[in-house]
Amino acid sequence: MGSIAQTIVNLVEQTAFANLYWGNYVMIIVACIFLYLAIGRGFEPLLLVPIAFGMLLVNIYPAINEEGGLLHYFYLLDEWSILPSLIFMGVGAMTDFGPLIANPISFLLGAAAQFGVYMAYFLAMAMGFNGAAAAAISIIGGADGPTSIFLASKLGQTDLMGPIAVAAYSYMALVPLIQPPIMKAFTTKEERLIRMPQLRPVSKLEKILFPIVITIVVCMILPSTAPLIGMLMLGNLFRECGVTRQLQETAANALMYIVVILLGTSVGATTSAEAFLQMSTIKIVICGLIAFAFGTFGGIMLGKLLCKLTHGKINPLIGSAGVSAVPMAARVSQKVGAEEDPTNFLLMNAMGPNVAGVIGTAVAAGTFMAIFGV
């Protein structure tokens, strides 16, 4: 009987119930909320489902993210900047850069949306973070999860990578909720009703030359951006050159989805209660939200200025798409414009700033790496 009792005791001691503390249960509840938002409300399910499930796993069985655990090896691919770079290749292979080429002024709107990044940098410094940590946190303002992970790794902020990545991906998923109130608050009904002219046709030669020229120019100025900009442009070259269809399809589909699974679950697995339930996490979430709001605001304000300068030819709503959540931010610009006029089609015009925002956030990350000598 004694051996049976001891066996039962051993089994009970090995259950999660005997080894978790209140913080783990809080994080399990948060994971379930994320799963509801992803599955029940459709908020960016391809990102939130793996992130939330990784969060669930690590708070039930913390060893899964320790050395020797499955998700530990997924996480190493984040630390080595492999998965963020591959994500950029997939984005490039999926995205038509034609709207940006047809309307180069979109580069200015993408740059203006980085205003939130620099605002968050100084805010994080004021909250007590050191320079490198503040830089890693500030990239959340670009609504770009892979770049946030990439910069945090390069600047040696791996202890903050979990909260930074979760905040960045959460705000990416919540773009349809966060951006519209800001867009409506800082634009008039007349501005939202502006119809933009159809974009000019872009030749195949322009589309082939664009990724090559951008890679040379940007990487010559900021070589540290090569893993992101280089992979983004390589993926786009696969798409546009016309002789690598199989590579483009693989990068945009099979490889992209594999990387999203690995990246999402590994990011979620960094959110153990011990690491996540800290005051620094709350500060990061606050900084990220302010950065994202100011990024949207910066794009809108420049959009309004350009609207004045062009005598009403630019709808300021497309400025909000300058954050790099592709193509979600462009769709939000379309949706808000369509609420005023269902026949107003802004999506293609908004894709220009949206693509420019991806490049702009990578450039901002490269600038921080140059500042800190990485």
General description of the model:
It is a single chain. The chain has 374 residues and is mainly alpha-helical. Helices cover 72% and strands 0% of the residues. Helix 5 (82-94) runs parallel beside helix 15, helix 8 (115-126) runs antiparallel to helix 18 and helix 9 (131-138) runs antiparallel to helix 10. The radius of gyration is 22 Å and the shape is globular. It starts with a helix and ends with a helix. The model has no long low-confidence stretch (mean pLDDT 90).
Low-confidence stretches: none
Structural class: mainly alpha
Q: How many strands, which pairing sense, and closed or not: the largest β-sheet? A: none
The secondary-structure element order is: HHHHHHHHHHHHHHHHHHHH
Average predicted local confidence, pLDDT: 90
The coarse overall form would be globular
Task: Quote the distance from N terminus to C terminus.
Answer: 64 Å
What's the Cα radius of gyration? 22 Å
Strand content: under 5%
Total strands: the figure is 0
Helical stretch count?
A: 20
- The percent range for helix content is over 70%
What is this entry, summarized?
Helices cover 72% and strands 0% of the residues.
Question: What's the helix and strand layout?
Answer:
Layout: H1 2-14, H2 22-40, H3 45-60, H4 70-79, H5 82-94, H6 98-102, H7 106-112, H8 115-126, H9 131-138, H10 145-154, H11 161-173, H12 175-185, H13 189-192, H14 204-221, H15 226-240, H16 245-268, H17 273-276, H18 279-309, H19 328-340, H20 347-371
Tags for this model:
374 residues; mainly alpha; globular
